[in-house]
Design goal:
29% of the residues are buried. The chain is an alpha/beta fold. It is built from six helices and seven strands; from the N terminus they run αβαβββααβαβαβ. α1 packs across α2. It is globular.
């Protein structure tokens, strides 16, 4: 698949997910990374003092509290609030920022309980989640078997691997 076709597919798929506030999964292969296409999509939706879509790279053993703290700082910065000790609830910051979608790359690095807490929290905030990663790694982390995530739409770029 050419890079242009892949980028167009990702852009259109993400656009649909953003408009409809739907969650989804981008399964990629090591040779077909979608980072640039996702970044281009996010940049095309950039607005002053608003963050409709944000990108987050998961870190091993990061808990939900650390994830949310980092997200809050990023969103507060975008809103022009540079205080690092803001005590506003993240749900309020999300609403002020206009966040609709969060893209989590390397999602297979999130511990299962972290992922469960994030799914619940973002659902309550009406923020959709797009998980990005290699299918094999998501399978080994039991992400694709998750009771909620298993119902999500998948954009597949590695058609040679079957479950």
């Amino acid at each position: 698949m050419t890079k242009f076709i892949q980028t167009t597919k990702i852009f259109n798929w993400l656009e649909t997910k953003l408009i409809n506030r739907q969650c989804g999964i981008i399964c990629e292969s090591p040779s077909q990374r979608s980072f640039d296409a996702i970044q281009n999509f996010i940049e095309s939706h950039e607005q002053p003092f608003k963050t409709l879509v944000t990108y987050y790279e998961a870190f091993p053993q990061e808990n939900a509290l650390e994830f949310c703290s980092t997200l809050a700082k990023e969103l507060e910065s975008k809103l022009g609030n540079f205080s690092t000790d803001s005590k506003r609830p993240l749900a309020e910051v999300i609403q002020d920022a206009g966040l609709k979608t969060i893209v989590i790359d390397n999602c297979y690095l999130c511990p299962q309980d972290t992922l469960d807490k994030l799914l619940h929290f973002f659902s309550d905030c009406q923020v959709s989640i797009i998980l990005v990663g290699e299918r094999e790694k998501m399978i080994s982390a039991n992400i694709l078997d998750h009771s909620v995530i298993s119902k999500w739409d998948i954009l597949e770029f590695n058609t040679t691997l079957q479950i």
